[in-house]
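Review this:
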Amino acid sequence: MKGKDSKPHIGIFGRRNNGKSSLINFLAQQDLSIVSEVAGTTTDPVKKSMEIAGIGPVVIIDTAGIDDSGELGLKRIKKSYETIKTIDFALLIITNNEFGDPEEKVIKELNNYDVPFLIIHNKADEVEFNYILAEQIKLDFNQELINFSTIQGYSRDELVSIIRAGIPESAYLSKSLVGDIIKQGDLVLLITPIDVEAPEGRLILPQIQVIRDILDNDAIAVVCKEREVDALLKQLSPEPALVITDSQVFLKAGASVPEHIPLTSFSTVLARYKGDFHSYLKGTPHLSKLNDGDKVLILESCSHHVSCDDIGRIKIPRWLSNYSGKKLTYEVVAGLSQIPRDISEYALVIQCGGCMITRKQLISRLKPAVDAGIPVTNYGMAIAYMHGIFERAVAPFVTLDRDSLDYL
């Protein structure tokens, strides 16, 4: 659900008819959500991009009531809970001083995914504020209960200020992909094969992101296809300070690029930028520990045209089966689709680079596997390992973080 938007994502949770949509309209100062006295007007999570004065560009996700009922209602509640995996901050809305099991379940999930939140007692003009309840919430959850109403007499600016202070800085900050391993004036060579999966007339997103990051760090990006690498390296002066290759031609790049020049892949760059890099480092060697009958889960983070040479669905399974010599079963899950079986049934999880999603979303996607002790890796690091150049591929990054060296 978070997708391409890198703005802070704020989820709105609460029982039916608690005024979630009214609060969204009040914060945005425009009618973005349907407001009705009929309980259950919002049936599915709805994503809205907006500008909130005092906060800036955000994405608000309006969810269905957490007290919904019936078979369909339970499915709506489940979708509301799934939203928690994608957000940076949450507002839990209560009214009539009602606070119980539905709210506690939401708080439990928010804490499970380390999502900070506020609890707001809405429609304060209708019911007198219960200070005893507020004290109990403070005692049980270390949260102040904010008394509020969207009618005149309550300060929107004050509420916005509280929300802004609660949103973690990580939701705003965009760290550099390679800025800490290159310096001004460095030449960075990018090896970018053009295959059937590349959009016509364009590069794929990870390549574009890396080029922009190189330029943002006042370095020089030189781009070529794999068959030009050998001739180009003889001509380049100064020689590259770093070479970044597409994972599919890692073996060719490893043979062409001299050992003294740092070499990594776009997927490895993304793994460190937004993935669970330490878990990848720890999990990747399990590629050599698989057994006959093991199930391998491959996670794609976007939907795309599947070609006969698809990296995740065709090449990685073929390479891994050949590398391990084992009879393995592969299951591929694209986008945010549900994993078809209990995570404990898999021996290994291989995540794509995640160029289309955020770090929050990717970490949440991997969390069940990491919590269950299931080894995780990503496309580029897995390919590098199977081709015998894993240590070289991660070396530019692990030397910056000495704790990571323990996994090699």
